[in-house]
Specification:
Elements: H1 29-44, E1 49-53, E2 57-62, H2 68-77, H3 82-92, E3 94-102, E4 108-112, E5 116-117
Antiparallel strand pairs: 1-2, 2-3, 3-4, 3-5
């Protein structure tokens, strides 16, 4: 698993108590979907976006890949001056992925997915 910088309370990302059954039973499919929706909305508020989604799992991504074709054109038309900017963007740009899964007990399990850099 890859470490990423997020608020400390996200390691135990759990929704408010109203999302669970009052009698302690495991949540049904609808309650698990609501719990996952809550976790997704928390991530979206921090700049993540949904890449794919199923009933119990969502893949979220933050960052955007570089448009290398555009940077090639800019580099050629600027007599290779833009190449310095492209190099800096390629080194500093990163794409982060995370998979959120809600298990049968309604707990959110977070796993870091494969990321990527600009190059």
């Amino acid at each position: 698993m890859k470490h990423h910088h997020e608020p400390e309370n996200w390691s135990a990302l759990q929704p408010p108590p109203g999302y669970y059954s009052a009698d302690g039973r495991p949540p049904d499919a609808m309650q698990r979907a609501l719990i996952l929706d809550w976790a997704v909305s928390q991530r979206i508020a921090s700049g993540w976006r949904v890449e794919s989604r199923s009933e119990t799992q969502v893949v979220m991504v933050r960052g955007r890949p570089l448009n290398h074709v555009l940077h090639v054109v800019l580099t050629v038309f600027s007599c290779f001056l833009w190449g310095v900017v492209w190099l800096v963007l390629g080194v500093t740009n990163k794409v982060e992925r995370i998979v959120l899964t809600v298990d049968a007990m309604g707990d959110i399990v977070s796993v870091n997915g494969p990321g990527g850099s600009g190059f």
